[in-house]
What does this fold into?
Amino acid sequence: MNNEGLISGIVLAAGLSRRMGEENKLLMPYKGKPLFLHALEAVLSAGFEEVILVLGHEAEEVESQVLNLDVKTIFNPDYSSGMTSSIQVGVKCLSEETEGFFICLSDMPFITSWHIRKLMSRIEMGRKEILVPYFNKKRSHPVFFSKHFKEEILHCEHPDGCREVIKNNLSFVKEIHFKEDVSFDVDTQEDYRDLP
It folds into this structure.
């Protein structure tokens, strides 16, 4: 980052995991811990001043895994309506001092704090900008929004995330490219079986 300022991380852990079937994918075990903890721990190790974990489906079970972590939990009562409602709950919970925030998915077990810090290093504080990571030429997460986009996100009506906000603000988008691919996310039983 070029200047000091409070940067927040919003981690989404509220979804229904519909494509996974009966199980909540975020709680499925991977390498000795629930799947979502891999991404959350990467976020917590990246150096954010504030980390918000948005809960929804099986909120008590998810929250029980983070009681000893420095994370603020918030429940989205409308979690079944789609990802956007969880993003909006997280944005409403942001500190008034935040200069910008990352929206982070919790089903990406291969994202690391190094990748997140690399993205953080490209933030130009005070500027109106969106940072979008590309892993092996594929657009992915976490995506950074400067504080200037808070209201637009809060009024976004598309249920499945902030793609429309990005699309409507392409002149403010900065693409950050990584050669490696850590974008694998777990949506189905087949994805889970394919985890190394």
About this structure: The radius of gyration is 16 Å. The first helix runs from residue 35 to 45. The chain has seven helices and ten strands.
